Amino acid sequence: MPSYSSSHSSKGLFSERENPPAHHLVAFSDGGARGNPGPSGYGVVIQDEAGRKVAALSEYLGHQTNNFAEYQGLIAALEYAVTNGHKALKVISDSELLVRQIKGIYKVKNAALQDLHGRAKELIAQLEWFSIGHVLRGHNEEADRLANAAMDRGMGRVARAPSPASELGNISAARQEYNGVVRAGKIELLDGKLPEGTQVQVRVKK
Fold first, then answer.
1. Which of 4, 30, 59, 90 is most buried (most C-beta within 10 Å)?
2. CA distances from residue 130 to 65, 77, 78 in whole angstroms, order as listed
3. Structural domain boundaries of the chain?
4. How many CA atoms lie within 13 A of 188 on its CB side?
5. What is the pLDDT of residues 28-61, one digit of tens each?
6. 162 DSSP assignment
7. CA atoms within 13 A on the CB side of 148
8. Is the model's pLDDT at 127 over the cut of 60?
9. d(CA 39, CA 184)
């Protein structure tokens, strides 16, 4: 399991104890928008305390921002826990802004996010224990994949199951052009995924 931060803040929405109770859920949450704002969606992978997957949630959100989608992912995780009678939830997100706003470290200035922040506060209040922490995007791959799948569905892109050859890196018959963006010196694909170790040539669009 990757490490994540969960420092206590007296300004936050909850009183965070250091250790979770014996029975709790862990939700890996991610949200994104292509264009920011643009076609958006979220993905959430929920596990029990032993690391067994119990749910996978995703939804297309229409034309929204990254931060809007991140909040919707958090709310989806909270609603799942509350609706299914769970009283303890640990959320892990790759959005540092979301985590710091929920902890009360950052103020919520955007009007649309204020409404979502309020909804999250209502749901957190229904739990007996809650924790939220930040993790780097590379440790949140499955939630990221679900969020992108939701965006693909909303944009009318039908994802096909990969063939065994493509799983092994033989992509000669697959699509050869992807959209991507450079973040922190690395290229992140926006609409696809390539096998580890794939060699690529980059053409910058002006």
1. 30
2. 26, 12, 10
3. 25-143, 165-206
4. 14
5. 999 999 999 999 999 999 999 999 999 999 999 9
6. P
7. 15
8. yes
9. 23
SS3 121: helix
Is it the case that residue 67 has pLDDT exceeding 70?
yes
Tokens of 195: 């096998």
Structure tokens, 98: 């979301």
pTM here is 0.71
Q: Let me know if 124 is exposed, middle or buried by CB neighbors in 10 A (0-12, 13-18, 19+).
A: buried
Per the listing, tokens 């949140």 go with 140
Lowest mean pLDDT among 12-16, 28-32, 162-166: 162-166
Beta strands at 88-93 and 129-134: parallel, antiparallel or unpaired: parallel
Q: What fold is seen in the domain 25-143?
A: Nucleotidyltransferase; domain 5 (3.30.420)
> How far apart, in Å, are the Cα atoms of 21 and each of 25, 42, 127?
10, 27, 12
Q: Is 135 helix (H, G, I), strand (E, B) or coil?
A: coil
Q: Report d(CA 175, CA 89) in Å as an integer.
A: 40
For the segment 155-171, the average pLDDT, to the nearest whole number, is: 50
pLDDT confidence bin for 173, thresholds 50/70/90? very low
Give the position of tokens 């969020």.
147
